[in-house]
Amino acid sequence: MPSKPTTMSTMVIFGGTSDLNQRKLMPALYNLHLKGRLPEGLKIVGYARRPWNDEDFREEMRAAVHMHLPEEYDPDGWQAFSHRLSFASGTFTEREGFENLKQHLARLEQEPSGRIYYLSAPPKYFSTIVTHLGELDMVREDEAWRRVIVEKPFGHDLQSARNLNRALHEYLGESQIYRIDHYLGKETVQNLLVFRFANTIFEPLWNRNYINHVQITVAETVGVEHRAGYYDQVGVLRDMFQNHLLQLLMLVAMEPPASFSADALRNEKTKVLQAIRTMPPEQILRHTVRGQYKGYRDQADIPAGSQTPTYAALRLFLDNWRWQGVPFYLRSGKRLEEKTSEIIIQFKCPPHIMFPLPEQYRITPNYLALCIQPDEGIHLRFEAKEPDKTVEMRSVDMEFHYADTFGETALPDAYERLILDALNGDASLFTRSDEIELAWSIIDPICEAWGRQDAAPLAMYSPGSWGPEEADHLLQQQSVGWLRGCGKQRSNRRSNPCTTDDP
Rounded to two decimals, what is the model's pTM? Predict the structure, then answer.
């Protein structure tokens, strides 16, 4: 966790009454306060249309923190924290509310203070809020820094992302914009960089010479629930792949940056997106699968004939020196059998098997499982000889679990790290404008290909399964299958065995 910021600062939360603020932001800020990591003079201002005063806001936030952090909450700790909180009333569209906010901040800040404006608001208001701030000179950095945190989704396609970037850049420099993806704040995602670049035993193997393929899975057991109306306009590609899964792909595939600075790290990430192979529509259809869980169309706010996918599986290739010819399989869906986020690195088979194995015996290739949630840790599977047998082998695991090593409560919420990084001015774990646009340039052609008349019908799958059978066929073209390296249902020792065709 980064060190405590030292400058005077203020955080304004647009959408102070929002679900995100009550579930994530306020509990994260309260936890940082308890840990002594917030700057002493940090002030937190909620902004929303409700006609509240400061005490109303404090009481609502107290109830939210008590609900979402019942173990950490204590009256004395809250009393000290609540003095940081105040409230300014106004809408996102009317200038009068922003003028009221400007006066409110002038009364709070007795000296020049840095400011973070957190846009915990519907995406359609992002550019409107920044425009009002810009017109009232509330984002100029004459005496202190000004930063804006923008929540996802950042656009719904390439053109809308470009339009939003253009609107923000009218009043903000790129260094002032912090586009947040909470996945990058997870300890286990950050550990991926440490694992790769702080351990010399793996980095020499991290390439096409030793790796057969990579699988990235982000599975959810829940359906669309109260987000049905929104989700049907978005679908799984825009909801999960454009941000979360491509972020994981970039961290797995990127080259070592020269330093851990924001620019160096993000430069290497964008190179990964630039290397993803561009495919014509007919190839996209061969390398992708889309599905929808049965019963999706029966929910309120979902059209009867909806073609919105709730599941997708992609096979991508990176045309660069390190990864040429190595397929990256990405899958994500709702109403699947188990909740998990994991990355599987399957290594190649040995080039020659010298052991006198039984005729039908197939050795299992090594794999590395990076478990992001909820089974946070790392598993390395390799072959070992079974005792008291001639040459028979079995697959065994070497395991590391955060909970076992550091305790059940060791992992902070991702928002704690990201808020503190924004206060420190460290943009390493935030996305840059070119990264956003490159990601959409990968997703848009897939969405367009799926809308063609020659596209395969939407594959239906049963809730509680691992998705449509067509996704299994996607991997069987290379004689492999989906692996589970984390959680309750890890793949057995015979998954993806080496064949006589393997090198």
Answer: 0.92
